[in-house]
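hey so u asked for the seq, here:
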Amino acid sequence: MGLITGLVDFILHIDKHLAEIIQAYGMWTYLILFLIVFCETGFVITPFLPGDSLLFVVGALGASQALDVKLVTILLTVAAIGGDTVNYHIGKFIGQKAFQIKDSRLFRKEYLEKTQAFYEQHGGKTIIISRFLPIIRTFAPFVAGMGSMSYWRFISYNIIGGVIWVVLFIAGGFFFGNIPVVKNNFTLVILAIIFISLLPGIIAYLRNRFQNSSADNS
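ran it, structure tokens below
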């Protein structure tokens, strides 16, 4: 319970905690940020790590020159692309075995079939779209590795999605993070970013529930 509370506090007050990390660790902060983004995108067991909000705060701190914004943008882009690449290969080599585990709540065959159907409907752009959907962006490359998507096709979408995701959120923080109304209400801004990021998934869930309810009543 304490770990969850600490994680929630870190995410909601990430601007303060990241500033403290910079003061305490200096240049090592770049490695810490690299590892957070790499793990958030690279391992299906760490989807809870901050992504969008972290990038936004990094941009804001870059604007105040607490971080080298060019260096951190390059490093986190590499981390995002590298994380997805590792996740793809993990899915390729152990994904099918994971879904064959009996009584597994996390890896179930129906999840694989639904995700593969989503890939068939939306194609490679799924890798780009998933960058902006928390949790889903952690599972998308894993499932892509399990499916029939070739590595070279995957890596092209991975690079495009990784660059757009990192640059867009860091730029957002750089240009808007230090505006007084944003800076003075940063917790609300972080909550808004999290809510907006989750909104497409919420809409899709409600739409699916509505369609199922309509089918049951017909």
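The longest helix spans residues 186-217. The chain is about 80% helix and 0% strand.
lmk if thats what u needed
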